[in-house]
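Thread: quick sanity check before group meeting

JM: Hey all, I'm pulling together slides for Thursday and realized we never actually wrote out the predicted structure for the chain we discussed last week. Dropping the sequence here so it's in one place. If anyone has concerns about the input, flag it before I start.
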Amino acid sequence: MNVYFSGCFCGKEKGERKGKLLPGSWRFEWADRNWSIPGIYRFGQGFVIDLIREMDEAAVQDFFNRYPDFGRAENLSQEKRLALQAENPFDSFCGFSAEVNGRTCRDWQGQSTYWVPFLNQIRQQKEEELASIAGEKPLPQPPSPEQQLLEEYGFDWNKCWQINRYRFRWPTKNPPRKLKTLRLIFRNLDRYYPIGKHFELSVGEEEKQVEFIHPLTGRRHKLILVGSQPLTLPENSFGQRDGEYDFPRETVQMEFTVLPPLPEGHSLTILDTKEGDKPIKRQSRNYGLLLPQASCSVGIIGGASGPVALDSDLQIKTVFGSMWFKPQKKVQWSIAGVSAPKWPGRTLQILL
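JM (edit): ok, ran it. Output follows.
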């Protein structure tokens, strides 16, 4: 199998040379999953790693049964998209860093693809139905890049796989003469737990308390609102695009804290439930395509320590609402959910 430094699964960039496959393959368990590194490829610029995870086919089928519109998630609200992603069996890897001979690699890029047999069968059935309607015979399909890769490495086509390919540049200007050790440092994995507690806040309102229950611990907390003020972004806040588009610049700034503090490592997500206005292209005055939706700001409240009274020592957090062309008098906020540590990171030592 030819692998190139661009990291693409189905081709190469002009002038690229294939990498040299290093001897060995590695298997390990992490985050309740089985992982494999069937290939590491060396190049003059750096190296490429293929990282493959076996997926639970029953969990994948259950997810698609419960969320048949998953492929059109962009039509959902930001809050619903976060809740959906929390259960998404495809979205469970946050990346890692690499060290070569004890030195951290400068940068990395990666991409992922998947092989899900029952989805492939559904696609084939639809193609056969369309061919039958047209009075034609379905054309035989060659193996996909995913199938070719799995076959090359000896993985079973009847199972579900997440296929990741990462490229790293060498930590030094010149490539090392000899690769002695390679360390892969996997970051901690968090899990998002939806809450969905909505409340309304008038602009200028200075005091409000909203009670919510931590979905993981069952403990009651209070979100204490300290202030809510309008905010107008200055001209040229969006750089060069300001000359091409009219951007909404009106938003709301909300200040708050949480009592009692969240557990260490836990973080709360606060959302404006309305998506806001889209930018308008000046030439046509039609809605522009720069942003499909105006961005909805997110406030993250981490675990805090220290006094639990509203005094000068208590950290006050700030969140900004969606962007509008006209100032808003009220905002519908949501305590959308909380992220908490699920699996600790780990380091994989590879001897070459």
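AS: nice. Residues 117-133 form the longest helix (17 residues). The first strand starts at residue 20 and ends at 21.
JM: adding both to the slides.
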